[in-house]
Amino acid sequence: MFEGVRRRIVADGKNVMQVKIELGKGTSVPRHRHEHEQISFIHSGRCRFDLDGKIIIAGPGETIMIPSMTWHAVETLEDAIALDTFSPPREDFRSATPPDPAIYGR
């Protein structure tokens, strides 16, 4: 996916998908947006989310809701594990292809 990030689909349905994401300390997921609604549950570690300019620090047991087409980025403040739920499911994750570069930018 990105340097320092590993993902594994743990549940995959017709309308929803859940993905386990492991992120090393200092890892950055660049600013991007997608049609999918996303719920990120932080299992362990701490992450800094930038949701269209709103900064949220989330730690174990906390959940972040990312609406469809919202610009967002993530930086890990320490090693972290998150469970990300997407609706609709991420076809790019099913095919194990890199994310579409068109979702990145301003």
The CATH class name reads: Mainly Beta
Low-confidence stretches: none
The number of distinct structural domains comes to 1
**Assembly status:** single chain
Q: What is the number of beta strands?
A: 9
Radius of gyration: 13 Å
Main-sheet strand order equals: 1-2-9-4-7
What is the annotated CATH architecture? Sandwich
CATH topology name: Jelly Rolls
The number of helices is: 1
Q: Mean of residue pLDDT?
A: 90
Helix % is under 10%
Structural class: mainly beta
Profile the largest sheet: 5 strands, antiparallel
Topology order in helix (H) and strand (E) letters: EEEEEEEEEH
Distance between the termini: 20 Å
Shape: globular
Summarize the structure.
With 106 residues, the protein is mainly beta. It is built from one helix and nine strands.
